[in-house]
Amino acid sequence: MDGKRILLIIGGGIAAYKSLELIRTLSKRGIASRCILTRAGAEFVTPLSVSALSGEKVFGDLFDLTDEAEMGHIELSRSSDLVVVCPATADLMARAAQGLAGDLATTALLATDTPVLMVPAMNVRMWDHAATRRNVERLRADGVTVMEPDEGAMACGEFGPGRLPEIDRIAEAITTQLARSQRLSGRHAIVTAGPTREPLDPVRYLSNQSSGRQGYAIAEALAREGAQVTLVSGPVMLPAPPGVTRVDVETARDMLAGVEAALPADIFVSVAAVADWRPARSADRKLKLKDEAGETPPLNLTENPDILATLSRKRKHRPELVIGFAAETHDVEAHARAKLERKGCDWILANDVSGDVMGGGENEVLLIRGEGSDHWPRAGKAELARKLADEVSEHFARAQ
User: Fold this and answer.
1) Which CATH architecture has domain 188-399?
2) Which of 99, 264, 287, 298 sits a CA distance of 20 to 30 A from 67?
């Protein structure tokens, strides 16, 4: 990361003191920080301490004519590889979402053509407020990456989401953003991941053992290549990858709706282990062991929508490259080739899930496209995700 530099905008909140640790951590990774300290941020940390750690002059006043002559707020906003707002307060995000430019920080944000990463920190009630949620969605729609805050005890004594993420996680998100290649720049990818849950009644559901790890790794790998990535995720215990927009869903029908709402896209990777069936009727009360006649209640199933086939057969907004997964326990290649033809997708990644693949950290796949196939030996899911991202990038490079 030597030679990389961020513009760090320090907002006004108690978490501002952690910006000093962030500057130090990034410096150890070879990432320099040029800083804008807001007037509110200066209530928590001093320009002297920020300057001492960053090794550069700290900027704060939009109307400092000396700085305007030397650099100008336009150059300041564009002279770094990434703009990071940490902590991003509710007020600062609201002003950025509305395109206001009343101080140096918001003017720099409005003037920049550099990628922006915001790291929120605020009271749980402020984070959950409808206005903040609207502002976050507006920023994300504008291409700003907004990290999810951590959950825990806060300085105000309350507990919940709103804590500044751990510094190592912020530093990793920054490193990921800076390490992005631009091979998929301008491309939109939709990735599905995890299981779906099909409710039997208010407390029971049909599901599977998918951990979501492979889908999340693919979403992150595509983002590293510069793609705008929408991750439509079933319920898993994983944080959203840096730079990825996550849409949380429960059922197969929810997942299809989430995918279609994210269109148009250039790339669709259907990794999720979508339930093939759902109960024909979901009870509104908990089912009892025996019904009134003393019989075990029957379980009638109906077929779920086929997300991969639906996207593959779209006449309007069909992604240029549609990739499916085939999780098999025997005759892997034969079943995968049949699925490729049946679904109408472009590529199939086939894997044998008879072992611990769905919950484990490794995978072994067969990439099938047309008449050819490539065997990828067992490796970590992140490594396989990087291989797939390479293949996707090369596909679009050849197409151009």
Assistant:
1) 3-Layer(aba) Sandwich (3.40)
2) 99
